[in-house]
Amino acid sequence: MSLSPDKASAAASNLKPRGSSQGGMRQYNERVVLQAIRLNGRLPGAEIARLTRLTAQSISLITKRLLEDELLIKETPLRGKVGQPSVPLALNPDGAFAIGVKVGRRSLDILLVDFTCTVRERWNLSYSFADPEQILTHLADCLVKIKAKLSPHLWERVQGIGIAAPLHIGGWQQLLGLDADVVARWERFQLKTEIAALTGLPVQSIKDTTAACVAELVAGRGRDVRNFIYVFVDTFIGGGLVLDSHLHIGKHGNAGALGSLSLGITGSANSPQLLNVASLYKLESRFIAAGLDGRATSDERAASAAYWPHTQAWIAETAPPIAFAMLNSSCLLDLEGVILDGCFCSAVKEALIQAVVTSMQDFNWEGVVPPQVLAGTIGSDARALGGALLPLYANFAPDRDLFLKLDG
After folding, report:
1. How far does the chain reach from its first CA to its final CA, in angstroms?
2. Sheet containing strand 158-165, strands side by side
């Protein structure tokens, strides 16, 4: 599926939210106003009218309703100009909440996100491999903590849960040394259905790396880059695809699946995939073989003196195949940029990006314009944050189709 280019993208920075001053458009116009403030920050009524092309009278009525619904708050009046001081309006952080759940192969992340997309609380659970029952138990414990932190009034404003998880979480069994019983349980387990039954909240789901791409599109560099491949390095490397500021997920929800890109040209079924050489499980293996903690892949220890030689060796092995993937993607899509992020510290990310840029020079780009390689801005929270954005945007963004059809 690709999102219709003739609809306003709720995630794009170049969105110019335009409403209609005719009757019968209240809900849509409210969403347009909320989106204008979300994209531009606090705004006085006159500026909202200019951006949305709604009349001053319409803006007055709409913002009055949004203030009454506690979705907007008034900030300190702006003084110093002729006439009455203007009163900026801003999103009320307590206006709505969502819960983002990232189910990974090595860890579970749960975020409580407010109406401004700020992470209020986070919980993390690490494991050797995801077990369905363990995930439900931990989520249930976190829900108790979330309810304890939110008053009953605020709990009613929780819009739902967004799940970010691999499409085939039980896949690559031999590569990761997975227990056959756990894999069999995942084949029988309906994650979305079980979480909905556990929580009683609306639940939406999305592929984990696509969720990370959503977070970057909405809250990161996607505001400035219209056409990009998103690369996220985790246990397995993966990605997402954004064209004309619209998320594309493909017929099977798997567009941008860079990890499955073949690195061979012989036609052999045994040709390695990108994930076989450019994933964090390879760095984890290097650490363990050296007698170090494999879990250090996701924290600053990976850049410390004891770990750095092994990290450098992994970067040297990883950068060329990522550059190769960028070349092939650019030939097909004529990309503006590649945004690279991952579940690692900033020092490792910066070193990997520099190595990828250097490796690009070893390939023949004749006839193709190399894309700019940019660092992602969200980091490890990207997948869970992208999940939390699903219910928030479904309920409050003017482009109602932006994330609603991801499960279809």
Report:
1. 9
2. 119-126, 107-114, 97-103, 158-165, 203-207
359 close to 319: Cβ distance less than 8 angstroms: yes
The per-residue pLDDT string of the chain (408 residues; one tens digit each, 9 = 90 and over) reads: 233 333 333 333 333 455 555 544 558 899 999 999 988 899 999 999 999 999 999 999 999 999 999 999 998 887 666 556 689 999 999 999 999 999 988 889 999 999 999 999 999 998 877 788 889 999 999 999 999 999 999 999 999 999 999 877 655 555 555 667 777 777 788 889 999 999 999 999 999 999 999 999 988 998 889 899 999 999 899 999 999 888 888 888 788 889 989 887 666 667 889 999 999 999 999 999 999 999 999 999 999 999 999 999 999 999 999 999 999 999 999 999 999 999 999 999 999 999 999 999 999 999 999 999 999 999 999 999 999 999 998 899 886 444 433 333
Q: Give dist(CA 148, CA 403) in Å, integer.
A: 29
Question: How many Å apart are CA 357 and CA 24, to the nearest integer?
Answer: 52
Instruction: Give the Å distances, CA to CA, from 246 to 49, 95, 226, 288.
Output: 25, 26, 8, 40
Task: Record the tokens describing residue 228, joined without a space.
Answer: 């990009």
Which amino acid is it at 362? D
Which of 8, 43, 56, 47 minimizes the C-alpha distance to 28? Answer: 8
Among all chains, which residue has been given the structure tokens 């193709």? 368
